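tokens incoming
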């Protein structure tokens, strides 16, 4: 533990890493390579680390099992031969000459290589700082001679590879000697004094300083030791020490703790005493008398809450936790004054977090700590973050590893203890605590979805882990990483454009959740880009269209299709070339899936949960689609499924699409849809659950079609016979009969169909003797 472990350590061995820019140093460390880089010239010479870097960005093209981390010449050449094939395939601008320089460990050869790789993979330019000329700092006697220059420039490994030919070797040596002589001549011009011969002069010594004849002897005095008497006991001193330790960490290196803080810590009311009083007040003192082993009331209460299944305990426990929340300020003051009390609090409530996530203990314990975290952060954000890092993270780490369903709740609680500016530190502390990259990546995904705002550094961190997640073997991790990319698009979409190469490799992934999340990424990109605005937008949109079509063509999962229908609907207007593809996806859904995605209430967000435990929003596209297309598709689905009766989802969809008036050119098509569904629609009048809504559906449909709807009134008459039977017990419910008479009244108000309705009713009047409808017909 300790606060210092949360600070990102970006310092490397400067003597071995000199020449590399700070951006590249940070980037290399962020990649978390399997071997640490200590000597750039040597560590990158065999190509293994270069391959590992590219494997993070192109996991399907660079397989690390094909590379050997040996340092022999044969292994170096084999590794670089594989890499060169990859470079040619992907168009990476790394020449054979640059590779040979690195293989033979030439001075500064790795620097241009790493700069090229960095620019290629991150699309960022290297900010080079002009370095000092080191040769100027070397004394003349230590500068290279001709032989040392040749030895440094021609390595032994070159003599058996690129310089194996004797003539080539001699020519290279001659070039080096020529270059050395040129540099020597330039030195003669710049520093003539070094090469000027002068007559030797008689050396002169500095005259000695006279020494005093007698050295005075000083007297040494010892001060009296001042002893301060201690008027506090050992417990008080330890409490003072605990305050000093944590406050030192949160006061930016100040080594002394103020007397005021010490006094405040000593006056703190122990947390167990405060909680005991609350529990006894809420639960009654009698419940805790004679507790085993003289346990505190709060301990007994929490044990009861975790182990008991008594329903009578629920209301009393809820009241006790509510009281703790209301008196939270006193608890927070104790934690800020004495950090040890915060440790005690976490130790007391630790078992509640191990309870099932649906239990009262877990939900109330979580709520209490979230409230504590928010209030502590308001008073002292630095200390709140530090305390949770030291005491909280070690407690929740076992649960994060073994209980995936609790991660979102526990990480939400963790973020309550730190403000946005400290999220980077908390994420680093979590990584150190977990020591498990897979679990950490799953937690990072959740944390990104919990963020309400992003700093530049925080977004960069999430982008790095998103790219790392895309290269994992676990399909659920790849899907979760794609959900992070959706957020990146919403924040700064240009950062996603360089990722398209990697996203395109996932189109044939095969796992439904990866395909669904990839479609969400495509929809997010299209929502912020319009094809035709610029040459870049045309190219990007074209690639996204192709990727979307490839996913939908190869995928058969209805879950993926539902996500496609939901996420692509908002972009159809700006990207009309997707409409035909979208219509095909709609038609490919079965009746159940089509109805479910269309009937999602407007005021309620629906989410689909995958194995990655990441929720995918499945909002209804009903209001974004042409009503006629939805109605046609619904009629086709009902007919294909051979349903005998309508379901509530069908009626909800019909109500929505019938809200807008019909276009003149569409009336015949709407009339055909009503004819196809007339039996289902009129029979729904006999369904007590649907009768009220179906009246609105029929009235809107008939009023819009006018006399064209009259041909369906024969079926209406048959439905009325079904509703108003004279047998008594077998008659339809009163709600259905009232709905039917309400419909008849509405239809008779429509002049275009009034006569047709009355004609049908008169023809069947004799069938309703002794029913509620008889008196209505007599009045008519």
């Amino acid at each position: 533990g300790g606060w210092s472990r949360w600070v990102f350590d970006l310092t490397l061995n400067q003597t071995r890493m000199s020449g590399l820019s700070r951006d590249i140093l940070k980037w290399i460390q962020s990649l978390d390579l399997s071997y640490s880089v200590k000597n750039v010239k040597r560590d990158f010479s065999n190509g293994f680390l270069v391959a590992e870097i590219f494997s993070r960005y192109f996991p399907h093209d660079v397989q690390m099992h094909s590379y050997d981390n040996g340092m022999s010449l044969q292994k170096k050449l084999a590794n670089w031969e594989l890499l060169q094939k990859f470079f040619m395939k992907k168009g990476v601008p790394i020449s054979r000459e640059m590779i040979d320089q690195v293989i033979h460990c030439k001075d500064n050869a790795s620097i241009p290589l790493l700069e090229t790789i960095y620019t290629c993979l991150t699309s960022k330019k290297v900010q080079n700082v002009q370095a000092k000329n080191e040769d100027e700092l070397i004394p003349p006697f230590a500068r290279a001679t001709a032989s040392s220059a040749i030895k440094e420039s021609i390595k032994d490994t070159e003599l058996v590879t690129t310089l194996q030919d004797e003539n080539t070797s001699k020519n290279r040596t001659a070039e080096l000697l020529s270059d050395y002589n040129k540099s020597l001549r330039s030195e003669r011009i710049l520093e003539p004094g070094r090469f000027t011969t002068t007559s030797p002069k008689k050396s002169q010594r500095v005259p000695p300083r006279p020494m005093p004849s007698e050295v005075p002897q000083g007297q040494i005095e010892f001060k009296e030791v001042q002893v301060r008497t201690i008027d506090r006991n050992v417990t008080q001193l330890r409490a003072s020490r605990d305050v000093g330790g944590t406050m030192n960490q949160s006061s930016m290196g100040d080594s002394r703790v103020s007397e005021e803080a010490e006094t405040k810590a000593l006056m703190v009311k122990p947390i167990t005493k405060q909680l005991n009083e609350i529990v006894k007040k809420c639960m009654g003192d009698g419940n805790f008398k004679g507790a085993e082993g003289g346990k505190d009331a709060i301990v007994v209460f929490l044990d009861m809450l975790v182990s008991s299944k008594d329903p009578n305990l629920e209301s009393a426990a809820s009241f006790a936790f509510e009281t703790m929340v209301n008196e939270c300020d006193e608890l927070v003051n104790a934690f800020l004054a004495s950090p040890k009390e915060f440790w005690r609090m976490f130790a007391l409530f630790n078992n509640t977090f191990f309870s099932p996530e649906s239990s009262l203990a877990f939900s109330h314990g979580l709520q209490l700590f979230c409230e504590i975290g928010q209030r502590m952060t308001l008073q002292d954000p630095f200390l709140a973050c530090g305390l949770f890092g030291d005491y909280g993270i070690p407690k929740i780490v076992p649960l994060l590893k073994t209980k995936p369903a609790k991660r979102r709740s526990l990480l939400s609680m963790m973020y309550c203890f730190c403000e946005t500016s400290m999220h980077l530190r908390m994420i680093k502390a979590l990584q150190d605590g977990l020591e498990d990259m897979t679990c950490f990546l799953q937690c990072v995904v959740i944390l990104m979805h919990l963020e309400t705002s992003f700093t530049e550094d925080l977004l960069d961190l999430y982008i790095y882990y998103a790219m790392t997640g895309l290269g994992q073997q676990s399909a659920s991790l790849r899907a979760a990483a794609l959900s992070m990319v959706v957020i990146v698009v919403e924040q700064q979409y240009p950062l996603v454009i360089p990722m398209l190469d990697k996203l395109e490799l996932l189109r044939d992934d095969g796992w439904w959740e990866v395909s669904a999340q990839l479609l969400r990424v495509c929809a997010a990109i299209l929502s912020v880009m319009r094809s035709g605005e610029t040459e870049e937008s045309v190219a990007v949109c074209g690639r996204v269209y192709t990727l979307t079509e490839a996913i939908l063509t190869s995928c058969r999962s209805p879950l993926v299709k539902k996500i496609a229908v939901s996420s692509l609907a908002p972009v159809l207007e700006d990207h009309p070339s997707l409409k035909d593809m979208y219509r095909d996806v709609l038609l490919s859904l079965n009746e159940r899936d089509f109805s479910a995605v269309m009937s999602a209430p407007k005021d309620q967000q629906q989410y689909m949960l995958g194995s990655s435990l990441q929720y995918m929003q499945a909002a209804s596209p009903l209001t974004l689609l042409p009503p006629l297309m939805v109605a046609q598709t619904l009629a086709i689905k009902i007919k294909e499924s051979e349903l005998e009766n309508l379901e509530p989802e069908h009626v909800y969809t019909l109500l929505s699409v019938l809200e807008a008036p019909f276009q003149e050119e569409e009336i015949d098509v709407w009339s055909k849809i009503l004819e196809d569904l007339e039996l289902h629609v009129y029979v729904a009048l006999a369904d007590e659950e649907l009768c009220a809504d179906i009246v609105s559906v029929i009235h809107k449909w008939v009023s819009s079609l006018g006399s064209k709807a009259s041909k369906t009134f024969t079926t209406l008459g048959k439905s009325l016979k079904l509703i108003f039977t004279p047998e008594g017990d077998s008659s339809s419910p009163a709600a259905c009969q009232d709905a039917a008479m309400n419909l008849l009244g509405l239809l008779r108000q429509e002049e275009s169909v009034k006569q047709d309705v009355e004609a049908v009713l008169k023809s069947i009047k004799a069938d309703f003797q002794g029913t509620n409808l008889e008196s209505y017909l007599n009045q008519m």
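note: The mean pLDDT is 79.
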